[in-house]
Design brief:
Blueprint: H1 2-27, H2 48-79, E1 82-87, H3 89-97, H4 125-130, E2 133-141, H5 151-168, E3 173-175, H6 179-187, E4 191-198, H7 207-215, E5 218-222, H8 251-263, E6 266-268, H9 274-283, E7 289-293, H10 307-316, E8 319-322, H11 326-329, H12 337-351, E9 356-358, H13 378-387, H14 392-416
Parallel strand pairs: 1-2, 2-4, 3-4, 4-5, 5-6, 7-8, 8-9
Cofactor: Zn(2+)
EC number: 3.4.13.19
InterPro entries: Dipep_AS (IPR000180), Metal_Hydrolase (IPR032466), Pept_M19 (IPR008257)
Length: about 450
């Protein structure tokens, strides 16, 4: 009897050991690997036909789950406009088509030369519709080599181009300049189209040109690009071996921010140095934005935003719109959608879901993450976040309600400053270097 008991216990212990060993292999998997359906393992004792039946049933269950997630995301994007903060399509049209809209059809560029092979071509109407984009900030970008030369002219040409393709494809696009207009245009089924100017050099150190930009519909200006202006330091000056020029904003730079507040134009501090970020947050009465940046703690690129600035951004009521450029996501040439999720999750964990948006930088970069290779892939982000347990309310914030809130507050600050006269200061001549003055005249 005793011998039989020992044999029974040996069998039980062997069974438990095998199960524990299998579980250990399961939990030792990398965090990024999906476990999901493998928990429902098909018993080895089933005949082949029975095993196939069970496998098919499990596969159908998984597909239904994925379809449910996509359905939830689709319904969400039907009721809340997906607002992207930064798309450089106008610049690519300038480069590849010389700004001539008759040379191509924006409806579908996926198989058109040279668009289909160009690594910076991510946008057309078919893909925007598939991605369920509800509102897009189109960027009027001018290269830094235009600074102190013809940058205001180039910026105006880009604004004109945006107007022209909105008019040409008026069945798809409609200009919007306020939060309410975004919602109204979205309600008609069209894509609300807004304008941002990238690079403060586009205003040519003139508040008059800044005011003209606003009258033309520009609703944000990025204070710098890859070059500093005579009144603001850019992010490259934070690289090792570089030295700041102004230590942030100059006195005239502070005036630029104040005039943008008065106008109701959002201050975009992507591309600026950390000291400039600090100064803008000290000066601005309205929420500020990062139209296309990332979190420095996740990837220590100088184009990304340190945690202490993110905390100040939350106190300011502003928003950081996560860019999809691989170097900002993973600090390398390759990245995937998990790197985008990691950025979003870090920001949410640090400052909450009220201060995050999306600013893909499509058409402005040549390397984007796998599973986010063009504007049609936005829903993939929300499906991934849904799987991580994000509520629909927090997803709505990321999709667009955060940006709508920021715009409404900027508009309120404009109303609060309605009786403030336009600022009539000129940039001090001593702020301009000799090479800055080459294209200036003495005309008064």
């Amino acid at each position: 009897m005793a011998q039989s008991s020992v044999i029974v216990w040996m069998i039980v212990l062997a069974f438990i050991s095998a199960e524990v060993s299998a579980f250990a292999k399961l939990i030792d998997r990398p965090l990024g690997e999906k476990v999901g359906i493998t928990l429902n393992k098909i018993p080895e004792s089933l005949h082949d036909s029975e095993a196939k039946t069970v496998a098919n049933e499990l596969s159908e269950t998984q597909v239904i789950s994925v379809n449910d997630e996509l359905a939830i995301v689709s319904q969400l994007l039907d009721r809340v406009p997906l607002i992207d903060g930064h798309n450089d399509l106008p610049h690519v049209i300038r480069l590849l088509a010389e700004s001539r809209l008759a040379n191509f059809n924006l409806t579908d560029l996926s198989d058109k030369t040279p668009w289909s092979s160009d690594p910076t071509s991510h946008t057309d109407i078919v893909r925007l519709r598939k991605g369920k984009v509800g509102a897009q900030f189109w960027v009027a970008y001018t290269n830094c080599k235009t600074q102190h030369n013809d940058s205001p002219q180039k910026a105006l040409e880009q604004i004109d181009l945006i107007y022209r393709f909105i008019d040409l494809y008026s069945d798809t696009f409609q200009l919007a300049t306020t939060a309410q207009e975004i919602e109204d245009v979205f309600g008609t089924g069209k894509i609300a189209s807004l304008i941002g100017v990238e690079g403060g050099h586009a205003m040519g150190n003139s508040l008059s040109i800044l005011r003209i930009f606003y009258r033309l519909g520009v609703r944000y200006m990025t204070l710098t690009h890859s070059c500093p202006t005579p009144w603001a330091d850019n992010s490259q000056l934070d690289n090792p071996g570089q030295r700041p020029i102004h230590g942030g904003l100059s006195g005239f730079g502070e005036v630029v921010v104040q005039e943008m507040n008065r106008l109701g134009m959002m201050v975009d501090i992507s591309h600026v140095s950390v000291a400039t970020m600090e100064d803008v947050l000290n000066v601005s009465k309205a929420p500020v934005i990062f139209s296309h940046s990332g979190a420095f703690s996740v990837c220590n690129h100088t184009r990304n935003v340190p945690d202490h600035i993110l905390r100040r951004l939350a106190n300011n009521g502003g928003i950081i719109m996560v860019a999809f450029y691989n170097e900002f996501l993973s600090c390398g040439k390759s990245a995937n959608i998990k790197d985008v999720i990691r950025q979003i999750e870090h920001i949410r964990n640090l400052i909450g879901a009220d201060h995050i948006g999306l600013g893909g930088d499509f058409n402005g970069v040549d390397r984007v993450p796998t599973d986010l290779d063009d504007v049609s892939k936005y829903p993939n982000i929300f499906v991934e976040l849904l799987r991580l347990g994000w509520s629909e309310t927090d997803l709505e914030k990321l999709v667009g309600t955060n940006m709508l809130r920021v715009m409404r507050r900027v508009e309120e600050v404009k109303q609060e400053l309605a009786f403030t006269e336009p600022i009539e200061e000129w940039i001090p001549i001593e702020d301009l270097r000799p090479e800055h003055k080459l294209c200036l005249t003495d005309y008064v």
